[in-house]
Amino acid sequence: MDTNITTAFGPNVANNQVIQPRVKAFYDLTQKAKDLKDDWDEAKKIRDEAEELLIQTFDDAGITAVKTAEGNFFFKFGFHASITAENKLEGFEWIRDQGHGDVIGETLNAKTFSTFVKELIEEDDSIELPDFVNTYTKKGIGYRRK
């Protein structure tokens, strides 16, 4: 970082012994946050790959759970629903027709919508969802410490 900064306030303000260290500290923390985000994204990618491998291993072994010294690992199933982008307005109208217009804001929260659709299906498993509603169940691995 350039320590001889001239600002709109003049060189004396930018090089002030109080301001300069705080600017440097802020800059360093901003860079650290970016690096941590990059590290987090990479760790999440590696973790997701390890989860996929463990799911396949459970499937191959014909098991749904295992207890280890680290804790209990088990299959979990996450239900997901979404509205196709080209049918967003029609989808919002359908949600309102179901009496759940309160879940719609500027955007529709994916988790809230998934819960809403899952509850509709649980209430009436013969319900016909509109074509613009996509659903799928994602298999994952859950974990509980001992």
Describe the biggest sheet? 3 strands, antiparallel
How far apart are the first and last residues' alpha carbons, in Å?
48 Å
Strand content: 15-25%
How many domains would you count in the coordinates?
Answer: 2
The pLDDT mean sits at 86
The largest beta-sheet arranges its strands as 1-2-3
Count of runs of 4 or more consecutive helical residues: 4
Return the string of H and E elements. Answer: HHEEHHE
Indicate the overall shape. flat
The structural class is alpha+beta
What is the tally of beta strands?
A: 3
- Cα-based radius of gyration, to the nearest Å: 25 Å
- The poorly predicted ranges are none
How would you characterize the overall build of this protein?
With 146 residues, the chain is of the alpha+beta class. The protein has helices spanning 11-14, 19-61, 88-97, 110-123; strands at residues 65-68, 71-83, 133-144. The mean pLDDT is 86.
